[in-house]
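cron nightly-structures :: item 1 of 1
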Amino acid sequence: MSPIMILTDVLRRHAPEDGTFTSPLPGVKLIRSSTTTLPMPVVYEPTLCLIAQGRKRAMLGRTAYVYDPARYLLASVDLPIMGSVIEASADHPYLCLQIDLDMAILGELALRFPQAGGAQERTAPGLMLHDMSPDLLDSAVRLVRLLDTPDDIEALAPLTVREILYRLLIGPSGPALRQMAQAGSRLSQISRAILWIRENFRDACPIEQAAEIAGMSRSSFHAHFKEVTSMSPLEFRTRLRLQEAQRLMVGDGLDAASAGFNVGYGSPSQFSRDYARMFGLPPARHAGSLRG
């Protein structure tokens, strides 16, 4: 079998039904869907997504990132995404391998294998698509095949994950990964501010305070934040608020007014306007349609 067929076979067996599965491989999840899905909010943390079968679209602001077995997706910072499976069926389900990016290993590899020609000056984007390489696919296949030999996981999985990160580091996503691993890079500075906004999005989150945490002037922070996230800091905070409000209404059964208040809105009408602008329907109607 070809490498992609082996990857598909292993994922089908170890993700036997629709859902997201935590695997015995540290930092590795298996995802399966036998149907296409509506756009749903999710926060992507620094991760690598490799699709064995099917296709998915991730919307970051107004930009669409479509990935499939030929292209992998890499998130370098925490980002609020609208994700939807756009190609899947019962016979050919969507199958995805998700690998967390280990900053400690990335930092070690970046120091040991410095970038030829010096560091990239431009701030790396938060979300990237790149063509799958044979070497990266081969290492991913060897990683998931360890699921069939669980006694080998402790000894071999760390080595194979390290190889995957090395393949990414020397490939087209290398400059972004090096910025992730470098504490003083613009990407790392923005990442610190993003983590603070995620922890405090229910509050006012003054831009001046976020810029201070990033160690930048307000104007520089705004420009670099938009380079990384495709959104302004305030748009980013609003998206986090609205995604959490949707979760509260659909998952916890809160009414629209309570959900809006819970995520930091003092005005129900402002919450309703922002929600309808993002999701296309007023909050109560939209949550009701998702609950079925």
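cron nightly-structures :: done
Residues 233-251 form the longest helix (19 residues).
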